[in-house]
Known about the structure:
Elements: E1 6-9, E2 14-17, H1 24-32, E3 54-59, E4 64-69, H2 70-80, E5 91-93, E6 98-100, H3 114-125, H4 129-136
Amino acid sequence: MSNDPVFYATRDRLIEFPAHRPAAAVLEALSIGSLPDVVWQHGDDLCDCIFQRIGMWKNPYLAETLEIRLCCIWAKIAEQYPEFVRTIPGYFDDNTDTWFTEPMAWDAEHDMPKAIWYRHLARTLNRPLAEIRAEYADKDDLRPKGTPIEHAPRRGRSRWRLFSRR
Length: 166
């Protein structure tokens, strides 16, 4: 094997690898275009799970990333082991030791994320998520808006003083 760099061309770029050849799996992934065009993110609405969770582990020294849609895997595990899963039709507030069985109105400082809005509508209207997505995709003006909270301006010094010369 020579010490000359190896070049590999994809549809839109030329990639230079060091003198050692990349693994066959890497070359195959590049050639079939399996590097993702879409980055998975929490709340990206790319699956129908109520609680969307994405696990991502990455290492630049290995040039590898592992992404797992944990929410989808949990759903598959729940199908296999239903005796260990409970879906409770309510929200338990730890602060008041109270169950709430109706979805709350949006009361945050920022606008409601689309993925949560779709699920909120599906729950409150008792309709399938797919129907809600299709019907409300172009109705962003109806999505609940945030209510900014006015914070009192700070006066004087911070009470968090770690070191003092006095």
